[in-house]
Amino acid sequence: MNYRKLKVQEVGTDTYIDYEANYQRVPCACAYHPSHDVCAVSYDNGKIRLYSTYNDTLELIKEFTCHSQCIFAIAWISDRLLCATSGDQTTVIYDIETGAEIDLLRGHTMSVRSVSKLHYSTYVLATGGRDSIINIYDRRYTKKQGALYPISSIVCAHISSTALQKSARKDTRSVTAVEFQDEHNLYSCACADSALKVWDLRYTYSRLNINHMPKPKRMFCVPIDDVKLINRLAGFSDMKMDSNRTTLFANCTNSKIYQFDLHESAYSTTTTPKISSYNGHRVG
Predict the structure, then answer these.
(1) Model-level pTM?
(2) To which protein family does this belong (predicted)?
(3) 3 has pLDDT over 70
(4) DSSP code string of the chain
């Protein structure tokens, strides 16, 4: 696929896709089609627009409404199926050809902020929410009351037991991104947690228990010197893996992008994984 930049135009304090001057909506997420010159862009009004990226004109192909609230994340499931998460606590899979709703995913108690599919499957999905819950879904399972529910959940994925004891509100830490490495390993990050966590999906994680919090298989942390520089808790707004699933890029709230080597030989219990960092942008 020949990727091209989406043109953007600054209007006041917000940034908009520069296609129609009268469409004053904030784009929240975008995802390139797996095999065609098409980019899907979601907006704060619950709509998704499909743009042709074949040339610089950014032709609008189609627009449809997916949710009643802001769409925080989108992901292509196949050539025709697009998945969208929203502030209405649900995730919906749509057929972009017909605009029909194919699957409705429930299981979160707050906004659903992230979604990822197992890269070689159209059935297995993971979502992360503002409730600090990670849900795993398999679309082959039977629906209940018209919706799919998680086959596995990780509750309090990015909340410490200390935070739970101190606050009745549980100090929820939003899961801002989830990413499959393979069918057994799922990575997650949060807006107020300086550690990227790796979860072994072969393990059944316990439900909320102050004395027994879910323990990740492995963690990748922001270097302590970088945390000290900003004098506040650093977190991550997003992360992506390369096509080989061996390198992870994570966008940190300290305005750095960290590159982590995920090769098994790159880390052990006694060594620190190699970390590179890039800067030049600002995470506001």
Answers:
(1) 0.85
(2) Belongs to the WD repeat cdt2 family.
(3) no
(4) ----PPPEEEETTEEEETT-TT----EEEEEE-SSSSEEEEEETTSEEEEEE-SSTT--EEEEEE--SS-EEEEEESSSSEEEEEETTS-EEEEETTT--EEEEE---SS-EEEEEE-TT-SSEEEEEETTS-EEEEETTSPPBTTBB--SEEETTTT--HHHHHH-TTTT---EEEEEESSSSEEEEEETTEEEEEEEETTS----S-TTS----SEEEE--HHHHHHHTS---EEEEEE-TTS-EEEEEETTS-EEEEE--GGG--SSSPPPEEEE-SS---
From the number of C-beta atoms within 10 Å of its C-beta (0-12, 13-18, 19+), residue 59 rates as exposed
CATH code of the domain in which 253 resides = 2.130.10.10
Give a yes or no: residue 64 inside a domain. no
Pick from 217, 228, 248: which is nearest to 116 by CA? 248
Number of structural domains (the chain) is 1
User: Which is it for the CA torsion 157, 162, 164, 166, positive or negative?
Assistant: negative
Structure tokens at 183: 């069918």
Which residue range forms the structural domain that includes residue 126?
A: 97-278
Closest CA to 140 of 114, 112, 120, 121: 121
Query: In this predicted model, what pLDDT tens digit does every residue of 224-262 receive, in sequence order?
Result: 877 767 666 788 999 999 999 999 999 998 889 999 999
